[in-house]
TrEMBL record:
Organism for this UniProt entry: Clostridium uliginosum
UniProt-annotated stretches for the region Disordered: 1-23
Top-level taxon of origin: Bacteria
Comp. bias intervals (Basic residues): 1-12
Protein name (Swiss-Prot/TrEMBL): RloB-like protein
Amino acid sequence: MKLNRAGRKHKRNEGNKTNQPGNYLIVTEGTETEVNYFKNIKRLIEKSFNNSIMVERIDLDIHGTARSTTVLVKEAIKKRSLQSYSDVWVVFDKDENIDFDEAIALAIKEDLHVAWSNECFELWLLLHFQDLKSAIGRNDYYSKLTNHFKDKNINNGKYDKNIYNIFDITSLYVDTAIKRSNSLLEDHRCDKIFSPNKMNPATKVQDLVAELIKYISK
């Protein structure tokens, strides 16, 4: 129901009700794959809606061999203070980040949503094509994705990080990836592993993707 100017409720035609997206801010640690992926989703949503989904990349300082994910979270908090958003998400990988759990805890404390991956975002992509139950290296993700791209004739049989329509070319399998991602998390919980830092492989990217794709016309 919706209030009229006098403050009284009037009925709305529920059959014509459209669930429109809010104003999202998505801040990613990555500079290529993640940005391309979510901007691809944004383009699809904005074909039907005028609401804004902002996808930004934050350049982070590197201290030693580790990139501080807490800096990313703090940048998202700062941006949220400058403009009103319905949802703010941060997207980052475990990689060599030593403050991974700390950054997740800070984000949750500040009411941000976190789409983390352990080890990397490519895990989310790989789960579109296969299950993965044990940790592998970043280069192994690339080679496995390339093999699947060849097998399914995606992007001329080659995976790389700067594919601008990466969501489009993998979207056929996104529901499978969501199920596999949730299953991985459940496996870790059954093994009494609750720290994201120790959940490898695991990801929460599916939460953000599931939130966004409901706005894409089928």
